[in-house]
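Entry:
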Amino acid sequence: MFYIMVFRGKNIRYSLIALLACVMLSSCNNATTTQTSAEQSNVIDLGLSVLWADRNIGADSPSDYGDYFAWGETTPKNTYSWDNYKYCKSGELSINTDLPLITKYCAENDCGIVDNKKILEPEDDAATQNWGNGWRMPTLDEYMELIMNCDGKWTERDGIKGCEFTSKKNGNKVFFPAAGRKDEKSLSDTASVGLYWTACIYETPSYLSSLISSDAYTPPCLNFNHNDAIRGYLFGRSCGLPVRAVRSKN
């Protein structure tokens, strides 16, 4: 069983969705402008469809947390909330929810302005805007490829807790620090939870559409914790999460 957790923002609501027919697989407090360049990051070939950066956007080393971004935004900030999220109308609530209208990347009438955009455009991709040179945020499929083709292990690097993925194809490794998340002004779950944005909004598989609908508010992300649980997670797009970049092999 593969659990997808949903978090839409502080004091809003949590829900847990068990998706059947899937598989369960086993710093900085202040906003700063990202300084890390693509040249500082080593490219890691795990034998997969894309190459992975060895560190987060804004990080000085593979164990550094780096910067935090709201989904679809390209610069870090001091406060992460729906009130200052780029792609919503904070004064207007969507149909049947207590959340503001989404103004971009929306496929549901009850969430906001429908544009049917499902993948972040380059101008809204934190990896592309900060590193350029072919770097972009991973898709959900690329994170699932990472999970399925690597052994994930909770470990430490330079005294920082996180998850190390070792390729089953060539033995190469990539480390993701447990950098937690930012909600409002708070930095939470460091050293115990890793959350990393994907570049796409969540779409419910057709065979599960009767159980859960797609949700423009909660894009999927990679999630891991100290219990060695590695899974998909749906997280409120106004929250600040770290970003790991990928690039084409061509």
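The radius of gyration is 17 Å.
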